[in-house]
Amino acid sequence: MNLPVAQFRRVLESCGCAMIGQTAEIAPAIASLRAARCDGTVESPYLICASIMSKKLAEGIDALVLDVKTGSGAFMKTEEEAAFLAELMVETGERMGKQVVALITDMDQPLGCTIGNALEVVEVVDVLRGGGPEICASSAWGLRVGCSISVESPLRLRKEKTKREIDFFRESARQARQMVELQGGDPRVIDDPQNCRRLNAR
Q: Is 60 among the domain residues?
């Protein structure tokens, strides 16, 4: 995901979506912020906000859904601390003219129905194609702020899709397949994520 900015832009222009992490070209100050956080200030909400939002805003987003964790395994141990960080990040994004939603979730609970990177990717691909488990709140808000699709009931989106929703998921799967291929991955993972490892082993 560490694409040069020029390649990142080409992928975006080609298929309308891309995946990228922090690089020397995208939010280069992150390394300094992380170093400051590691110097006994890891739980500073202001430094966490700067670290997270600088990357998101540098990517050129229009809307953002944030998952702010709370609990014993999170930086923000209490819901009050998580709420303060969430409000800080939402305010930062809105001051930059972005539509931002923050959800506070329990670090001890999975957002979906699976645990583990590979299984979670399979679940995400299933949802992306219009199937999978009941869509969680973060996915519903992503559809609402990013695609203007009103999701009153995530379960309705899974079982009783309108033509617009069917077309949306079909186009989303096509774009995801193209994005994976343009970024050097195997596009078959979008069509058959369960068997992608077996296909690549041939």
A: no
26 located within any domain:
no
Q: How many residues does the chain have?
A: 202
Check pLDDT > 50 for residue 75.
yes
How many angstroms separate the CA atoms of 196 and 42, rounded?
38
Q: Which residue has the tokens 């998580």?
A: 82
56-133-12 Cα angle (round to 5): 30
167-191 pLDDT, tens digit per residue, is 877 888 899 999 999 998 888 888 8
In a domain, 171, yes or no: yes
Res. 14: pLDDT tops 50: yes
**pLDDT value for 199:** 46
195: exposed, middle or buried (Cβ count in 10 Å: 0-12, 13-18, 19+): exposed
Percentage helix, strand, coil for the chain under 3-state DSSP, each rounded to 5: 55, 10, 35
- Residue-number span of the structural domain to which 121 is assigned: 110-202
Question: CB count, 10 Å around CB of 106?
Answer: 15
CA distance 200 to 197: 5
- Only one residue has tokens 């009931």, namely 153
Domain count for the chain: 1
Q: Is residue 72 part of a domain?
A: no
| Other beta carbons less than 10 A from residue 83's beta carbon | 15
The tens digit of pLDDT for each residue in 105-138 reads: 898 888 778 888 778 888 888 877 766 666 566 6
